[in-house]
Write a structure and sequence with these properties.
Chain lengths: 332, 568
């Protein structure tokens, strides 16, 4: 913060007639930030490199070796899930059901062997990764939109709105998830991936909602918010530009961890037959016959998807932990 | 196996009861003659695949409950290992009046309830009337629709008067359990479920008596030393609730349980593993149920033309599909009569060999043209835009064999422009659209009775949703088939053998129509399996594998004289 721009209002700002009003509020916030850190004198900061909160967080994250490793693994999985199925095309559904159960690591054509219908296990694993990751990410976006939105409104406005939204959240928390899935599936006439994503998003957002509300409850009382309000900023503007960026850190952590939770949930649903219908694979429905395989010689058909599931969920959780540490240096 | 209709379910229940009762009975008269040293004593610990919901036979409808109460209640008749019906509580076969509408059953005079009172005709009359009571709160579905009235002629004689001549009456209705009127007759039918006796039976008459039940964990029995077919050899029996199929199989292999009746439900892996284990005896048996693919043949639906159905059948390689889907545990079926039945005749059915070129030409004859996208279309019979051959194969979630079959069928049919996608659905919501006629294709399993009569599935009087009840969901209606069904049901000759022979001739004609028209595309009959510890003596499969053996849908003869070889 080497230079404090001139205040945009009053005679002192007369030299900058073209500066729009919006910018003015932002600069005020920068000033507020300086004020909000009373222990740090501006001349001390003057010599330090210009690193924002987020850049510092990134640096801190990459200093975390486990998290970096997990991110790398996750990156490889995502890349493989996105790229390989494009190359192999319909390989995952090509059957050779008269010659099923080719053992893994025996030939290059089917490195991970073939399944009960003679389909390539590796192609199915990667195709299944797509489903799992897609469900995880889209449902978390749903969490963020619903939970984040409602939590922000409840926390910011308080009063009856807060009360109403929190009671609504209580209702959502008490909804039996599986029954909702079954009911929605019945009502919409069959299992569809979109149904699964929507139901997960619609019933699982409460954690992020409550977190967001708590953040907003604290932040709305802070001086910089009062200042913004005193300067005439609209509620929308205060929520989106002033409080939200400051509330994001714990939400990002929660959302990241949420992805792994949803991937596991999708697996559980797939196991019960409530995920994507065949022949499309997901890690969950690849595991759904596991009992049969555990008692047979085909245990690899359980081990591969289960391992993929565990590694992915673990990697996401470690990345989530890394992000938490990076965003909240006091926790160290 | 899911149970399609109430009727079938009750029949299945009835046969099961008969089965277990006979199974655990220890009739000293039919010694195996192999010089085995049969001794009394020991405890039979067996695996129950879910906790019994009720031990009240009027209420229980699920297989685990029926297995559990089967130890406790006697039956009027039972089916032997060849599915021939034999007297149990009855003294001889029923006599039939000259107009064939009155069936008279004599009861044994020596049979007693566990409280010492005799089992009489009044108990049978109460049992039938209770089952037939419309207010009965039950999970079972008893069907006494053909019965006009039931009366006790004297202490040991019961007279059933029917509305019509009804050949399946013996197999379908008289294989029922009997419960004591002194207990169950006093309970309001609407309150049978909640009465304390439902989980704590006081008076019973089967080979074992109820001792205690630990909810969710076990049911204990003690031998009924006064059982009218002879004292069971085991002193006690304990049903251990093991819900996980893998755990139950391992329990059998480790010797924790001596009998695992649901072994076959663990799939081919479980059966193979149990067979390979030492200290375990496993017997395969043909199940009475079948798995089929029901096609909606109503006008305007994809399979409304018999040529389309034949094209589909010609495009599929059924033997290899069945083999892959069941991993060798299914028998290929073309008609609805399963190999286990006395009415089965492999030569009576029309079969289709895979021939894709021929299938394509049948599709063309049926009015379908395959477009550039590989999907067949035809002018819409209901008017409007052309109809594409795109639909769903409804199949139950959690049934890997059926889902596998659906996937292979879906794959093979692409070759002739048929695009059917597997659609696994939970049991709770599976049947509703099918019963409403709102489906393309549905793969489902059906439990059959000892009698091969399949009236509710094929008679046009059983069309659903056109009529209120019935299993004829395909919309198929054929006056010729209807009249054959009516004939088959009304054929009663002087002896059981003559009746069977006469009915079989009619069944053969029916099978030709059902398999030729592909009223429903039959897939396979299940092969099931049970496992015993080798310490259990008296287990006789009567000639190795592939013999009709005991299960929840039938039973063996009294030769199932189980006893503990080491006395424990």
């Amino acid at each position: 913060m080497a230079q404090v721009p001139p205040l945009p209002f009053g005679p002192a700002a007369g030299g900058l007639p073209g500066v729009p009003d919006q910018l003015s509020v932002e600069t005020t916030v920068d000033q507020e930030r300086a004020i909000a850190q009373p222990g740090v004198k501006s001349d001390e900061l003057a010599g330090a490199p210009e690193l924002g909160f987020w850049r510092l967080a990134v640096i801190r994250f990459f200093h975390h070796r486990v998290a970096t490793g997990a991110l790398l693994i996750l990156g490889v999985i995502v890349l493989a899930a996105v790229v390989v199925p494009v190359i192999t095309g319909g390989l995952y559904s090509i059957q050779d059901y008269r010659h099923p159960y080719k053992a893994p690591f025996q030939n290059w054509q089917h490195i991970l062997g073939t399944d009960d219908l003679g389909r390539d296990e590796l192609a199915r694993l990667l195709r299944g990764a797509r489903v799992s990751l897609m469900v995880g990410i889209l449902a978390v976006v749903g969490y963020l939109l619903i939970g984040g939105g409602l939590g922000a409104l409840a926390g910011y406005y308080g009063g009856w709105l807060d009360n109403a939204l929190m009671r609504f959240t209580d209702i959502i928390i008490s909804m039996p998830f599986l029954l909702v899935v079954i009911a929605v599936t019945a009502a919409t006439g069959g299992v569809r991936l979109s149904t699964v994503i929507i139901v997960i998003a619609a019933t699982g957002w409460f954690e992020i909602g409550r977190l967001m509300r708590a953040q907003f409850l604290v932040l709305r009382e802070q001086e910089f918010v009062q200042a913004a309000r005193a300067l005439g900023a609209s509620n929308t503007r205060i929520i989106l530009r002033h409080i939200l960026p400051n509330a994001l850190a714990p939400i990002i952590v929660s959302a990241t961890l949420g992805v792994s939770g949803i991937i596991l949930l999708e697996a559980a649903l797939g196991f019960l037959g409530y995920s994507i219908p065949p022949p499309e694979p997901s890690w969950g429905n690849m595991l759904s016959d596991f009992e049969q395989y555990l008692l047979s010689d085909h245990t690899y058909l359980v081990i591969f998807p289960a391992t993929a599931l565990v590694i992915t969920a673990l990697a996401i959780n470690l990345v989530g932990d890394g992000i938490r540490d990076a965003l909240d240096p006091r926790q160290r | 196996m899911d149970l399609s209709s109430g009727k079938l379910r009750w029949l299945r229940v009835a046969t099961l009861v008969a089965g277990v009762a006979v199974l655990v009975s220890a009739c000293g008269t039919s010694s195996t003659g192999t010089g085995e040293n049969i001794k009394n004593g020991g405890t039979l610990i067996w695996a129950l695949d879910a906790d019994a919901q009720s031990l009240n036979p009027f209420v229980a409808g699920d297989v685990p409950s029926v297995r559990a109460y089967g130890f406790l209640f006697p039956n009027i008749y039972q089916a032997d290992k060849n599915l021939n019906i034999q007297p149990d509580l009855a003294d001889g076969m029923p006599s039939i009046s000259s107009d064939k509408k009155v069936w008279t059953v004599k009861l044994r005079k020596d049979a007693k309830w566990s409280d010492g009172s005799p089992i009489t005709a009044d108990d049978v009359v109460m049992t039938v009337n209770m089952q037939n009571n419309p207010n009965l709160d039950t999970d079972a579905a008893f069907d006494w629709g053909e019965l006009d009235k039931v009366e006790a002629v004297d202490k040991n004689t019961v007279k059933f008067t029917l509305k019509d001549v009804f050949a399946p009456f013996l197999a379908n209705n008289l294989l029922t359990f009997v419960a004591p009127a002194s207990v169950y007759g006093k309970i309001d039918p609407a309150k049978q479920r909640t009465d304390p006796v439902s989980l704590n039976p006081t008076v019973t008459g089967g080979p074992y008596k109820f001792d205690k039940r630990v909810a969710g964990s076990e049911i204990d029995y003690v031998a009924n030393t006064n059982y009218y077919l002879g004292r069971p050899h085991y002193d006690k029996a304990i049903a251990k609730v093991i819900t996980d199929a893998t755990a139950a199989t391992n329990a059998l292999i480790n010797g924790d349980v001596a009998w695992h009746p649901a072994l076959g439900e663990g799939g081919s892996g479980a059966v193979t593993k149990a067979k390979a284990a030492s200290g375990v005896q496993v017997h395969d048996y043909a199940d009475l149920g079948y798995i089929d693919m029901r096609l909606n043949t109503r006008k305007g639906h994809l399979f409304d033309n018999v040529l389309t159905r034949q094209a589909m059948a010609t495009a599929l390689d059924k033997p290899s599909i069945v083999d892959a889907a069941t991993e060798g545990r299914g028998q290929v079926l073309w008609g609805d009569i399963v190999p286990a039945s006395w009415a089965y005749d492999a030569s009576a059915v029309v079969t289709y060999k895979q021939d894709v070129a021929k299938a394509k030409s049948l599709m063309t004859q049926a009015g379908w043209t395959v477009g550039a996208d590989g999907v067949a279309t035809r002018p819409n019979p209901n008017g409007g835009a052309a109809q594409k051959f795109v639909g769903k194969i409804r199949v139950r979630a959690g049934k890997p064999q059926r889902i596998k079959a659906a996937q292979i069928i879906s794959d093979q049919l692409k070759a002739i422009g048929i695009q059917l996608t597997p659609d696994p659905t939970d049991f709770k919501v599976f049947y509703k659209p099918i019963q409403q006629g709102d489906f393309d294709v549905a793969i489902a399993g059906f439990g059959l009775t000892v009698d091969p009569d399949d009236y509710t599935t094929f008679s046009s009087s059983q069309l659903q949703p056109e009529h209120k009840s019935g299993n004829n969901w395909t919309g198929y209606s054929n006056p010729q088939l209807d009249s054959l069904i009516d004939q088959e049901r009304a054929t009663i000759k002087g002896s059981d053998a003559e009746t069977k022979a006469a009915r079989k001739a009619i069944f053969n004609q029916m099978e030709k129509i059902i398999s030729g028209d592909i009223v429903t595309y039959m897939l396979w009959a299940d092969k099931s399996a049970m496992g015993w510890s080798s310490n259990v003596g008296g287990v006789s499969a009567g000639g190795g594998d592939n013999v009709i053996y005991v299960d929840d849908a039938r039973n063996t003869e009294v030769e199932a004289l189980w006893y503990s070889k080491n006395g424990k």
